[in-house]
Amino acid sequence: MAGGTSGVDKCKQAFHVLLDDVGNSDFYAQFKTVPTPGEQLGIVFDTKRIFAVDKHGVKVGALPTSFNYLVACLDSGIAYVGVVKSSATSPVPTVEADFAPQ
Amino acid sequence: MTMTYTDVVLIVGELVVDYTPAHKGAICKLRLGGVAHAARGLWAAEVTYSVAAFCPQYLVDEARRFLYAHGCREFIWLGTVVGAPNVTLIGDVTEVADQGYDDLMRDMKAIHLHDPLPEIDRYKRVVVFPGTFDLAPLASAFSADAKLSFDIAYDVEDLSSLSTFRGRIQALIISTSSTLFRKLGQDDITGLLDAARTLAPKVLLLKENRGGSRLFNFLDDSVEEIPATLGHTVNSVGVGDVYSSVLVGLHRHEWAEPAWRACQVATEYSQSTFPDDIKRNVQRSLKLPFHTLRALGGVMLPWHDRPSYPIYLAAPDFSDLQTPELDRATDSLAYHNFRVRRPIQENGELARPAGIFELRHTYHLDCRLLSECDVVFAVPIDRDPGTLVEIGMAIQMGKPVITFDPRNENANTMVIAGSSVYSADLDACLNGTFNAISELRANSQ
Fold first, then answer.
1. Topology of the domain covering B304-444
2. Position A83 confidence tier, pLDDT thresholds 50, 70, 90
3. Structure ipTM
4. How many CB atoms lie within 10 A of CB B439?
């Protein structure tokens, strides 16, 4: 490919993520469970880490730090919407999600 | 139109052509290198700059066209390179281990400065990337009140070669990849700092590859740790030059924020070779508030701390087995100054068949060594049973396990999910090693 751009913008790419710290999240602490597959998620940055949140803004789990590039994307006005792909409460609370830019 | 030069950074060095031969999974790559990397970075960061360069005549028109298209205010051809094409062959663009730079016809190369030397004394802020050119004539060509910075990673045998610039130096910048660093600071940073102080710079920036960087401020004796943001490295060539030039370009009164910002630009530069992509990503990331940048953190693992976290090598490290992937992994870890403990080499390779005493004795020695190490780097080639047992033991002990499976032979639930990182890509495993040990270091502080 020639030219100055690849045509790919990492902020505008969909991504798939296994959330961190689901067992320590606000969601798990409040409901003692995890969101079920198909539930909608969003993304917020809370001054230190990026979190996946449910439709009410409750934190479900953190995104791994390899996704920290999203902070600049969010800051530039790009929003993401996600959906729980799979989840389990036991033996370890686990949530896997797919996200795409809006 | 009158041009003012007070805020324009002058980049001085050689222009070369970087050529990376095609290799498995990647096409060949040809691009303008040397100070062109710094130019791309400055352009992406929207720092005003000019270039004063040495290059062969055949490159002049192309360099001028390229630089002016990338925001360069003025291109000054300081001298010509003869006898060699100024083409650098690059072996490893990701710097998993030594990058394997090789200059074509380097023994025939000579640089002829133009006489008289073009005027460069209107510039007050200068970054010099030493090369095979003589620095002495430049000393009088720069303005007496110019603030000079030197990236001494390459082509500086000894800091005494910069003594003529003593008192005029703002920043000295070096990388752990540099032979000068290996000579002065490999085992102890003190030697490097003492040598730097003889030139009376304001700051020394030590770029420590995937382990972040440290900014030593001689004005207040502070040390600023700037963590690395590890992602998929597309091309690490010139990334250090971008870091150096943007640091100086953004510096006004203090050094810490410019260093963090320069690191952001360098990170973006390592993750693409498409200039427009780099600029877009740089502009986005530079908009982040400084407190957010600090809060996000990253990987901080200074060169000199790495040996304090021994890595157990779980692998069929037997003398009669040809395992080039294992050699590549151990070379990579050694290149980055990790202390790799190799049980088979340390505790002995048993004869086959071995007696029960030798087996049990060696088993206990290996177990003890495993428990003494902080991290396990596993290379389960041929599904080696000993390696797989060691992986399991390490998981049970709560030690981070980085599994490099170059032949994709162990795509198994316990191996994949039990490992902190499981990959056939050494670059990803190296990042995983830096991540895991950086976390151990952070937790111990």
1. Rossmann fold (3.40.50)
2. very high
3. 0.91
4. 16
